[in-house]
C-alpha cells in the first residue's frame, strides 16, 4: 500500500512531460560557446597540419615571385608606374589568400561528409548562421596568418609597408570571407574529393589567375578587358594592390561595393543551404 501522504497522480508535480514542445535555448539568442567551439575546432584542424595548410602556400607564393620576378621580370620595365616586383607582390598575396580561404572551408566540409562525421556539426544546438560563422572564422584566421607572413616579406623586398594598410587589411578580410563562403558552397555541392578538385581546377584557379594577378587588365584587348570587370576576384586583387602600392585599375569605391555585395550574396546562399540542410547528409 502506498503511503497516505503521497501526492495524487494528477498533481502538477507529477505531470507527464510535453514531448511535442521544443526545448528552450538556455544559452541565449546566440550560442556564443558553441560558435567559438566550432571556430576553435576549425583552427585546430588546420594547425595540426600547418606544414600543408600554412607553410605550403607560403612556399608557393615564394616560387611565383622567383619565377615571375627573377626569371621573367628581370628585364621588364615598370607596370602602372611601379617596379614589377612591387606590382606583382599584392596580386600574389591576394591570390594566395583566396586559394587558402577556399581550401580551408571546402576541405573541412567534404572531409566531414566523406568520413560520415558531419553529424557532429549538425546535431549540436547551432543555428545555420552560427555554423557559417564557425567555418568562416577558420578560413579567415588561416588566410590572415598567410597574408601576414607574405606582407612582411613583401615589405622587406620593396623597402616600405602598405600605402593604405587598413584598406589592404579590409580587402584581405573580404577575400577570405568570399572564398571561404565559396568553399562552403563547394563542400556542400561536392559528394567526393574528385568533385572538389574539379571546382578548384576549373573555377577557383582560373578566376584567380585571370583577374589581373600578374598583369594590368588595361593591357588586355576587348572583350577580355570588359569581361575581367565582371570577375569579383579582380576587384579583390585590384583593391589589395591599391592598398599596398597605391595604384589600381578600378575605382576604389566600386571595388569595395562589388566585394561587399559578393560576400553578402555568397554567404547568404551558404546560410540558406545550411538552414535547409541541402546536400548535407554523408
Automatic annotation (TrEMBL):
Record PROSITE patterns: ABC_TM2
Listed GO CC annotations: ATP-binding cassette (ABC) transporter complex
Topology relative to the membrane: Multi-pass membrane protein
Coiled-coil ranges from the UniProt annotation: none
Record bears the keyword Transmembrane helix: yes
ABC transmembrane type-2 domain segment(s): 48-277
Main localization, broad class: membrane
Transmembrane segments: 54-75, 87-110, 131-156, 168-190, 202-220, 252-274
InterPro entries per UniProt: ABC-2_transport_permease, ABC2_TM, ABC2_TM_bact-type, ABC_2_transport
Gene Ontology molecular function, alphabetical: ABC-type transporter activity
Keyword Protein biosynthesis found: no
Keywords, in A-Z order: Cell membrane, Membrane, Transmembrane, Transmembrane helix, Transport
Location of the protein in the cell: Cell inner membrane; Membrane
Family of this protein: Belongs to the ABC-2 integral membrane protein family.
Protein name as it appears in the record: Transport permease protein
Amino acid at each position: 500500500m502506498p503511503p497516505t501522504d503521497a501526492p495524487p497522480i494528477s498533481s502538477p508535480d507529477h505531470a507527464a512531460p510535453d514531448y511535442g514542445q521544443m526545448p528552450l535555448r538556455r544559452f541565449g539568442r546566440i550560442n556564443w560557446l558553441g560558435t567559438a567551439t566550432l571556430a576553435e575546432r576549425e583552427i585546430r584542424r588546420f594547425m595540426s597540419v600547418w606544414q600543408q595548410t600554412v607553410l605550403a602556400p607560403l612556399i608557393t607564393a615564394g616560387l611565383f615571385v622567383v619565377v615571375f620576378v627573377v626569371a621573367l621580370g628581370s628585364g621588364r620595365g615598370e607596370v602602372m608606374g611601379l617596379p614589377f616586383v612591387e606590382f606583382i607582390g599584392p596580386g600574389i598575396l591576394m591570390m594566395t589568400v583566396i586559394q587558402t580561404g577556399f581550401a580551408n572551408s571546402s576541405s573541412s566540409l567534404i572531409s566531414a561528409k566523406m568520413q560520415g562525421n558531419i553529424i557532429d556539426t549538425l546535431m549540436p544546438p547551432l543555428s545555420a548562421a552560427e555554423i557559417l560563422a564557425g567555418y568562416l572564422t577558420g578560413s579567415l584566421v588561416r588566410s590572415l596568418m598567410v597574408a601576414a607572413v607574405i606582407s612582411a616579406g613583401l615589405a622587406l623586398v620593396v623597402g616600405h609597408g602598405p600605402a593604405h594598410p587598413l584598406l589592404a587589411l579590409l580587402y584581405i578580410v573580404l577575400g577570405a570571407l568570399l572564398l571561404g563562403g565559396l568553399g562552403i558552397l563547394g563542400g556542400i555541392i561536392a559528394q567526393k574529393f574528385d568533385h572538389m578538385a574539379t571546382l578548384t581546377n576549373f573555377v577557383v584557379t582560373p578566376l584567380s589567375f585571370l583577374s589581373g594577378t600578374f598583369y594590368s587588365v588595361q593591357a588586355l584587348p576587348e572583350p577580355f578587358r570588359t569581361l575581367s570587370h565582371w570577375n569579383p576576384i579582380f576587384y579583390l586583387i585590384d583593391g589589395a594592390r591599391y592598398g599596398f602600392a597605391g595604384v589600381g585599375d578600378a575605382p576604389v569605391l566600386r571595388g569595395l561595393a562589388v566585394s561587399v555585395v559578393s560576400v553578402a550574396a555568397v554567404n547568404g546562399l551558404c546560410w540558406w543551404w545550411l538552414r535547409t540542410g541541402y546536400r548535407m547528409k554523408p
